[in-house]
Amino acid sequence: MNSFHLTATGHNINYLPQYIADRHGFFREQGLDATFSIPQPWDLVLDELADGSADMALGGIWVPTMYHTRVKNYTVFAQIANRCPLALIKRGSRDGFKVADIAGKTVLMKSGGGASVGLFFKMFLRENSIDPRSVDYIQDLDGLMLGDLFQGGMGDYFVTDILSARAMADQNPNVSVAMEMVEQGDVPWSVYYRETETITPELLDKERRFCTALAKGIDWVLQHDAESFQDELAELFPNVPVHVAVAVTNTFRHNGMWTSPLVPRGGFDRWQVGLVDARLVKEPLSYETLINDGPVLAALDV
Questions:
Q1: Considering Cα of 125, then 131, then 132, then 137, what sign does the dihedral take?
Q2: Residues 156 and 205 in one domain
Q3: What's 134's domain CATH number?
């Protein structure tokens, strides 16, 4: 049995297949004694990679992108989330809502877990021919604080994770979920990476086995309606009503949140354009610059 430590930027429902792989023993089947940590603040995942306490980090691909050649190079091996897990909440009913309605309004966006929320939402506006500069943002506050402020009357819209959004709408009849970003196309939202210079054949082999277990976790979730494992969801996400966790899981199952550990080229290229527009990089990076899909392809026997 080989030790394998993963450091992650958070505990999120879009990471569910990884949790299932751990709970159901899929990592151990691959000879991996997998352990996990969620350091605070989130960017300490980079320190855990640097000091060797972690074999791999889980987080947004925007970090390896903006660090490339500037600070340190990281190589991405796999993904867990193939879609954006955010939602847009509005006041009143969602009936008649159009994306164009957002222009000229004030949008609250949670932060604290990195820049992904703002990066994706502004990219989404640009893709829908809305100038992000036509919108006012309040985004330098904690998500729970912004949620309370939004319900108290601040702003016109609130962008947060879909689990929190549905829970809020479930408990507050005065707000509704206007749209869910999981329906808005592929993007490698959450990926696994490590420092390029530290990669060894031994680590590549462990990453292959990790990807084999992860793929099995993804397949398991896709094959089981969330109602059938709602007890596990309740244990994993105790602060959310279980019927909300079940509904979100099934929404993700049916809308491409989980497909394969392989990072898709189309989603990668789309996200790179968004990161260029956000000024994180001057030009889009090529797939091969950041991605080593060898461990996943070996795991999938492709």
A1: negative
A2: no
A3: 3.40.190.10
pLDDT surpasses 90 at 295: yes
Q: How far is CA 94 from CA 143, 165, 178, 179, 239, in A?
A: 22, 13, 5, 8, 25
DSSP 134: G
Residue where one domain finishes, among candidates 160, 183, 206: 183
Same domain, 91 and 134: yes
pLDDT on residue 141: 85
Report strand pairing: 136-138 vs 106-109.
Answer: parallel
Domain of residue 244: give its range: 2-83+186-299
Task: Give me 302's structure tokens.
Answer: 């492709």
Coil vs helix vs strand at 59: strand
pLDDT digits (tens, 9 = 90+) for 147-189: 999 999 999 999 999 999 999 999 999 999 999 999 999 999 9
- For the full predicted model, state whether its pTM sits above 0.85: yes
| 77 and 206 fall within a common domain | yes
Q: Quote the strand ranges of 24-174, DSSP E.
A: 32-37, 56-59, 74-81, 86-91, 106-109, 136-138, 157-161
User: How many folded domains does the chain comprise?
Assistant: 2
∠23-250-273 over CA atoms, to 5°? 95
d(CA 118, CA 102): 14
pLDDT in tens, 175-231: 999 999 999 999 999 999 999 999 999 999 999 999 999 999 999 999 999 999 999
